[in-house]
Amino acid sequence: MTDYKPEDYISYRIERAKETIGEVKIHIENKFWNTAINRMYYACFYAVGALLTKHNIEASSHAGVRQKFGQVFVKSGKFDRKLAKHYTDLFEKRHKGDYNVFFEYDEETVLRLYPLSIEFIKQIEKLLEE
User: Fold this and answer.
1) pTM, whole model, 2 decimals?
2) How many other β-carbons are positioned within 10 Å of the β-carbon of residue 50?
């Protein structure tokens, strides 16, 4: 196993978040709605992972990451509650789109969620800079 510094991991995760949110444009252009939802969720997940790492908070599952994020950053008022709800919404939509048979999201849903996902990542970046 390779040793790494927490700041290296934080940097890596936020860069992955930005790279992944950038992929969404391509999926929108190609009308890959479920994949766009998936990538938006993972972009936000990577950003939250960076934030938790910065604060020495460990979580071992997607649900754990959401729970710790909510406890430490949302309940305390450090992160906007409405924007945090977007993260939970993406989690649920990603799960439904990935695992439900014969289920497709539509353009309207994706175009509504995309700007919120970008804003979510920007807010995480602000917290990382503090």
Assistant:
1) 0.93
2) 24
Q: What is the pLDDT along the chain (130 residues), one digit of tens a residue?
A: 457 888 999 999 999 999 999 999 999 999 999 999 999 999 999 999 999 999 999 999 999 999 999 999 999 999 999 999 999 999 999 999 989 888 899 999 999 999 999 999 999 999 999 8
Task: Provide the H-helix boundaries in the chain.
Answer: 6-29, 33-54, 62-69, 81-99, 107-129
Rounded to whole angstroms, the Cα distance separating 89 from 91 reads 5
Handedness of CA 120, 124, 129, 130 (dihedral sign): positive
Amino acid in the structure at residue 22: G
